Amino acid sequence: MNQQSTGSNDLLFEVRDGIGRATFNRPQARNAFTFEMYERLAQICEQADKDRSIKVLVFQGAGDKAFASGTDINQFRAFSTPEHAIEYECRIGRVLTALEQCRVPTSAVITGACAGGGAGIAACCDLRIGTNTTKIGFPIARTLGNCLSMSSVSRLSALIGPARVKDLIFTARLIDAEEARSIGLLNEVVEDISALQRRADELATLIAGNAPLTLSATKQALARLQRRLSREEGEDLILMCYMSRDFREGLDAFLNKRQPQWVGE
Fold first, then answer.
1. How far apart are CA 243 and CA 85, in angstroms?
2. pLDDT at residue 231, rounded to an integer
3. What pLDDT, on a 0 to 100 scale, did the predictor assign at position 2?
4. Looking at CB atoms within 10 Å, which of 8, 108, 233, 257 has the fewest?
5. For the chain (length 265 residues), average pLDDT per consecutive 10?
6. pLDDT score of 33
7. Angstrom distance (rounded) from CA 106 to CA 126
C-alpha cells in the first residue's frame, strides 16, 4: 500500500513497502537547501521516529547534477546581527541532529555534487553510496568564508579523522568518488545513475527486512561512543566567521561570480 506525505514541492517524500524516500527537488539550483527544506527534512525524520511502518529512509537529489549543493546562498542575505548567525546554526544543528538520531537506518544516494550543507546531510546518514561522477567536499574556505558548526566538526572527525577534516577544509576541494570511498565518506561506488538507483533500492529493501531493534540498538550504541560538541562550545568561532568582513565579501563575491578578496577580519 502506498502512502503519500505532502509538503513543499522542493522536498518530496513518499513511503512504499516500509521504505521512505525523500527527494531534494530543486535541480535548477543544484538542490540547494532553503530554510523550509531544512525544516521539512526534520519533519520527515520525526515522522519516521513515530511511524513504525517506516523501516528505512533514503535521501537523494533530483536530476543528475547534485545530491545537494549546500544552503541556498540567498538565505544568508539577511544576515546582519550575531543573532542571525546563532539562529542559523541552531536551526542547522537541530535538523542535522534529528537526521543523525533518527530511529531508522538512513541512506544518502549521491549523484553529482555533494557540497557544504549537502555533504553535512550526507555525513549524518548511516550509509552513503555514489557513482563514479560523485564529488564531495566542504569548499567554504574559497566560497563564503564561514565555518562548520561544532557538531558537524565532531561528526566529520569521528567519520574520517581530524587530519582528513583539515585537508578537506583547508584545500576547499571536492574529492572524487574513489577518494571518498577510501576515507569513509562513501560506503559504495557504482558505475552510473541507473546502477545507483538499483543498488539504493536493493540496499533499502535488504535493511528494511532486518530486525529493527538490532538496527536501532546499533545506532544508539555508536552514538553513545561519540560525543558531539555543543553549539555553545563553539559560539565564539561561529560569530568570528559570520560577523566578519570576509563573510560579507564572500557572500557578495559568490552572488556576483567573482573571486573574493580575503583580509582575515
1. 8
2. 66
3. 40
4. 257
5. 55 97 96 94 97 97 94 80 84 93 97 95 97 96 91 91 97 97 96 96 97 95 80 84 93 92 94
6. 94
7. 5
**pTM, rounded to two decimals:** 0.91
Q: By CB neighbour count within 10 A (0-12 exposed, 13-18 middle, 19+ buried), where does 2 fall?
A: exposed
Q: Could you tell me the CA-to-CA distances from 173 to 14, 52, 233 in Å, in that order?
A: 34, 40, 27
CA 259 to CA 186: how far, in whole Å?
31
> Which triple of cell numbers denotes residue 115?
557540497
pLDDT at 8: 67
Grid cell, residue 81, equals 546581527
Cβ pair 18, 56 in contact under 8 A = yes
